[in-house]
Hints:
Blueprint: E1 5-7, H1 8-20, H2 25-31, E2 45-47, H3 48-62, H4 78-86, H5 92-106, E3 110-117, E4 120-127, H6 136-154, E5 162-164, H7 173-179, E6 184-185, E7 192-195, H8 208-215, H9 232-241, H10 251-257, H11 262-271, H12 276-294, H13 299-305, H14 311-322, H15 326-332
Parallel strand pairs: 5-6
Antiparallel strand pairs: 1-2, 3-4, 4-7, 5-7
Helix pairs in contact: 1-3, 4-5, 5-6, 9-12, 13-14
Amino acid sequence: xxxxxxSISFVDAVLDGVRRRGFDADEMLEQVGLSPALxxxxxxxxxxxxxxxxxxxxxxxxxxxxxxQDSRRVKIGSFAMMCHCVIAxxxxxxxxxxxxxxxxxxxxxLRGTLSVLDGQARLTLIEREPDAxxxxxxxxxxxMFVHRLACWLVNRRIPLLWAGFRYPQPPQVEEYRLxxxxxxxxxxxxxxxAFEPRYLALPxxxxxxxxxxxxxxxxxxxxxxxxxxxxxxMQIQRRLRALPPxxxxxxxxxxxxxxxxxxxxxxxxxxEGQSYQxxxxxxxxxxxxxxxxxxxxxxxxxxxxxxxxxTSAFHRAFKKWTGANPGEYRRTVRAPPPPGA
Length: 341
């Protein structure tokens, strides 16, 4: 099972909507087993399951499937109603037009437009107050909602050619390569993603019967399941997950297994903004976070399971990955329940 982790930056961003509505963000973190102290570690990460719980709790408390990121609430059930409307469309361009119309009606501060320009289909976000600082999480959320819904409707991945954003490069920029595209542009006139226009003519193949399973995990999971399963990085991750970390092959062996020369594999990975060492580090990091969060294994046993010859080496690596040592991190993801709970 591919169980990744999410940057604490996204947790902090979604909590902004909670704070603006006057709710206690720290209390919400504690309800899902996270200590507010985790927010003070800018490199910290949480399991994807925990992040989904945070999103679901916020949506329920605020009765808002846009997580308090707009002046108007998108009441729970709105996304499902929109999906029931778009599922009847014959082609993706019609479905996207209807989905964007729905968000235009449901949101006050942000809306999306679809156009074809210079041989590219472009989804552009337009703000009610374009001179105000961009609400980054709102931009991320609307783009991911629309793009992942589009992929689901046609039952295939729609690769983004490039992604541009109206705001400066955020700290979690590495996540953007997975969320959107390897070609990232910041400080742009408007937030825009582009893809090949031929996808607009694809038929909507999903049915009302398949919609039920989709809605059981949407919309929260649309903000989590953003890995491109066809990318080289994900192909390599799947190969590594099948082996104990201590038995992971060298780069030359990986290239041979994939029937590519070493130079070709390295060049293609660089085009994705990845390297073999980074993939191994990311995978070990995610495995460590999930083991610390979901098991009672000792730190020494976790270090051994991840292929570290010495526990001290694991401590150093984990500190570099998250800004905290393993024991400290385990305490922050197992926060005590609030008084009276």
